[in-house]
Amino acid sequence: MYCEYCGIAILPQRPVCTRCGKTPTRQWMQFISLLVLFLTILGNSLAGWWVLPHLSAAHPSRLFFRAWLWFDVNSARYGWMPLAGALLAWEYFVWRKIRKNKPMPKIKGWISRKVLTFVLAAGFAPVLPWWLPAGQPSDKTLAAFSRYPGLPCAISWCAVLLVAAILCIKSETRDLLLGKGKVLSLVSLSALAVLLALTLLGWSTT
């Protein structure tokens, strides 16, 4: 790849120009898109925690607020599942083929295969024991889950976010995962537009 400003060849592993010291545009697009997506999720979470429960209770006949609250609650509980499945599919269909064509040191191959698979398995672990009769959790685990009902979701979300953070540390895997930033920017702007549209619609119906 080449620098967009001075044209010198730069390595994908160190995508900062050694001559002018500038960062490629795609990295700024990735960063801004992730920031917009984070702000959108944060705004939706704040609305789900403080605004929607009061509006649903004050307007029980309005299906709009109850549907929005139901979507937020179920996304918080089970939203990590499609993300974990997408990361596993990406690692199997995309990164594994590139890793075969480009041999990596043993330590990096061990991290990409073993550690990430273990972390994703840890994210699925709070759900799997309930499906398997032979793998029922212990009484201490059941007591912890009954005392902290949000613990399994928190563990799952932390596991998936940790895997995503590990993948985004290296520029090579980050570019393969996020792309050049165009699709990610469309997704983040679309999510922000949907949140603003729902907010305006909910405001107009109150």
List its traits:
206 residues, flat, 75% helix, single chain, mainly alpha
Helix run count: 9
- Beta-strand fraction estimate: under 5%
Low-confidence stretches: none
Q: CA-to-CA gap between the ends?
A: 53 Å
State the share of residues found in helices, binned by percent.
over 70%
Question: What is the total number of structural domains?
Answer: 1
Helix-strand string: HHHHHHHHH
Rg from Cα: 21 Å
Q: Give the rounded overall mean pLDDT.
A: 75
Q: So what's the overall shape? A: flat
**How many beta-strand elements?**
0
| Main beta-sheet strand count, sense and barrel state | none
| Derived structural class | mainly alpha
What does this structure look like?
With 206 residues, this protein is mainly α. The chain has one domain. It contains nine helices and no strands. Helix 1 packs across helix 2, helix 3 packs antiparallel against helix 4 and helix 3 runs parallel beside helix 7. The longest helix is centred in the first third of the chain and has 34 residues. The mean pLDDT is 75.
Strand and helix layout:
Blueprint: H1 25-58, H2 63-78, H3 80-101, H4 106-124, H5 128-131, H6 139-147, H7 151-169, H8 171-178, H9 182-205
Helix pairs in contact: 1-2, 1-9, 3-4, 3-7, 4-7
Question: Quick recap of the structure?
Answer:
About 75% of the residues lie in helices and about 0% in strands. The chain is mainly α and about 210 residues long.
